[in-house]
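WARN no homologs supplied; continuing
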Amino acid sequence: MKVSIFDVAKKSGLSVVTVSRVLNGAESVREKNRQKVLNAIKELDYRPNAAARSLARGKTGIIGLIVTTLQDSFFDAVVKEVNDVLALHGYFLAVSVSTGIASDESHYLIQEDRVDGLILLSPMEEDNYIVELKRRNIPYVLIDNQKPENDAFSVTVDNYRGGYSAAKHLIALGHSSIAHLSGNEMFRSTRERRSGFEQALNEHGLIPFETIQGEFEISFGYESCRKWLSSGSLPTAVFAGDDYIALGVVNALLEEGIRVPEQVAVVGYDGQDISSQLHPYLTTIRQPADRIGLAAVDMLLKRIDGTMKRGSSLRLDPELIIRESTVKEQPSHH
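OK structure emitted
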């Protein structure tokens, strides 16, 4: 028996109108009700009739997403949310892992009428893509794009604010000797995190212990910290450009028996899964992956159905998650 939208309404105890608004990604639904509807959909295994929908639209019913790497739980979380929300709208997601437009997969997605729209997740050569997408008249949305001039249809996180709040947190804990290990220079997020960090230090009349630029990798954090150790001069706190760099720093410190956070405090960035799974749990600046995915789909579907003609960009705030790598937990007495 085919499950209908009426069954979903009955199961969730909400009106068909509310269910329909959730399916259409309307912002006006209360979060509690949205969850009820989503739970009902899962339990009933409701699938909007994609064929009927795509016939009504006269389109393929496929949305493409291009991402540069899969070794990243933040990207994973964004892709998962995009996939879930699109499924509710009867769309199928085609994901391509590609470092540039010349690669076969991404070219295939952009070929004549393969997709109804495209999401670019932290793209490398966004200009090349945009030129091609505009030429073929394919609606697109950028997530975490590199160039401010392409912000017309984009969802980004305020990385400047993230870097600023990481530094403020360390300064509030009494640190004045703070190093920053930043990621790859070609990412706007790298530059914004660093300028937020520097601004906070500036306001307190501090200068960074050292700022080093490298890749978003554990080895970069590890090697940088080894250099400090062998030179016999350590900062009392480190703000790492992402959680992987932070883990490398923590590894190097723990190997030498240096206690985190008592001797050196460490802050990461992203809220990668692993940051809350290894001791000491990592203080990090979390990016709201679910809100990013939802907002990007919402924007893209509005472009596809023509309700969003002019560009709009959305900037979300990251969130400081304080854990053991900066503040030692007090033992709790039972």
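The chain has twelve helices and twelve strands.
OK
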